[in-house]
Amino acid sequence: MGDAGVPIGPNETATLPSSHPTKSFWQTSHPNPVSHHRSTPSLPSKASIVVIGTGITSVFAVDELLARSQGLDVLVLDARTTCSAATGRNGGHLVPLVHEQRPGIIAWELRNYHHVANLIESRKIPCDFRRLQSCIGFWNQTYFEEAKEALKQATELAPQQTNGQVRVVEDPDELTRLNLVHAVGALVQTTAASLSPYKLVIWLWQDLLDRYQASGQLNLQTETPVNEIQSSSSGDYTIVTHRGTVQTRHILLATNGYTSHLLPCFSKLISPRQAQMTALIPPQASPFSRMLIPQSYGFSGVAGMDREMSDYLVQAPISDSDSNFHPDPLDRHAIASQGGQLMYGGGRQHASGNGNYNSDDSYVDPEVEKYLRTLPARLDLGNSSNTTSRSHQGQTLSPPKDDSDLQLELQASWTGIIGSSADGHPWVGAVPDHPGLFIAAGYSGHGMPNAPLSGRHVARLLLQSLKTVDVDCTLLQEHEVQPSNSSADAALPIEYLVTKERMQKFNL
């Protein structure tokens, strides 16, 4: 394993992020000057606000802080490079879970989706964003029946939000057209997208630095792990790093799976969980080596999965639009440079300890990697790499003899750390008994349709606590929102609020 050692035990605090993480394809394929950025050669001795973490929660929170206030300086710290943790390592899914949430959460996730989509499209952010439909395939009949019942209940409770969003697919011929291999059913959703979260966040940080760094309002310091947060009776906090200390009265933790390292009272509330991703090269015989799969995928109920486990798949853009481009099959570098990688993650059922209580992303699990490379056992790539023979360009191809014939070529394999919440919901708000300390974390692997507006929400809460700052950032909690037909009016779900009562349920 890596320098973080063996997995921690249940309810133990997370480690610092590994100093030698596995190499995420998102990051290595997009070199940029923001990655190792330091706004100043040394740390400032004090700051109005310190934000720890540089993922999607942090960048949306910092944008909100700086846009709504004047005279504040915000220091942002990351243990490693910019966006090097979960956001820069996840699957690239932006899919609200419409079929299995109650109305308030559905509305919130849809609002996050539209907020991110509109931001990207209006500002023309180059992050491989693609609107598409999402398909969740099921290989377990019980799980499929449960999903159908959950969809029925969601539709009855929130018809305006769910109407026309999701359709149930059970017809074998249609399942085949969806490229699913031996699935018992599927849910196809219209509101979905894929993107490079890393490219999005790096672009947003560069934009913030361009606007606020020269004035001293924003100071971004990478490769500066925070070892400890010390509090004093005066209300000040001391941020302790190997590069020095920083005094502040307000802190925002956007640290997700690593939260308990700095906030031990969250050790039972947000636990680290190792997850694994791959970038797979489509076979040259597959049509998806030349054109994009028209949907993103989720895979549920595959043998060994429990109800919480799933796989997910999106496809990276194809860089060469020339359909006549056929690189030498032996030239793997040329094939990889063509793009179209299948970004496939999951397989947690094959991981040691299912990846639970593991904050070390410095290594990959070989059994998980082997499973992920057998994607064609679940998704027909149109090149006869599943269990049935097909005809391709007039040539009949033989079915695979064993699992080795299902193994796709691997371009990259890496891990990342999920913040697994004790009750399945994020934790967003002020931390009780810690004046000036705020948190937005614990997305349980479902951060893309939750983190952006959670970051903005907690930033407004923080600004409201600054008595000397005159800002108009009135917030509505969910129970205060008036009924509306628009998801744009959705407020933070009450389940996400950080309260003493919620914490005590797990800290007894």
TrEMBL record:
Residue ranges of every copy of the FAD dependent oxidoreductase domain listed in the record: 49-461
SUPFAM superfamilies cross-referenced by the UniProt entry: FAD/NAD(P)-binding domain
Region Disordered, annotated ranges: 1-42, 341-363, 376-404
Transmembrane regions listed in the UniProt entry: none
Residue spans of biased composition, Polar residues class: 12-32, 351-361, 382-398
GO cellular component, one term: cytoplasm
One Pfam family from the record: DAO
Name the record gives this protein: FAD dependent oxidoreductase domain-containing protein
Taxonomic lineage of the native organism: Eukaryota, Fungi, Dikarya, Ascomycota, Pezizomycotina
